[in-house]
Amino acid sequence: MECTVQWNGPGSMSFHAATGSGHWVNMDGAPEGGGRNLAPRPMEMMLVGAGGCSAYDVVLILQRGRHKVLGCEVKLQAERAEVDPKVFTKIHMHFVVKGRQLNAEAVGRAVALSHEKYCSATVMLGRTAEVTTSFEVLEAD
């Protein structure tokens, strides 16, 4: 896995990144730090990555268990340290999983497996942050 991050140059605190899979991502700093708020902050990208990694796991685990999962959303809330380095200290992930006749026990198991075993991002962030999860199951129409 690889990526390249490049500064957009003088007069900005924005950057763009090329991923090894051929995608582009823009990032920008907060206005108080010289950015113009035109794209996500790098730390927001880390949080997005953790949410994406874990949601991917949950969907895959449920699909492999032949559950009829039709939607998965994860809402993340994080707190950061007050002093540098301002690492994440708490992250809460709330999953909303939608499907047909989904078993809450199966969804809980999928969330736990992602959190404890499969999601590299949350396991890594768990070294500095208390990562907690919750979930709800919605029946699809």
TrEMBL record:
It comes from the Bacteria. It holds the Pfam family OsmC. This is OsmC family protein. It comes from Inhella proteolytica.
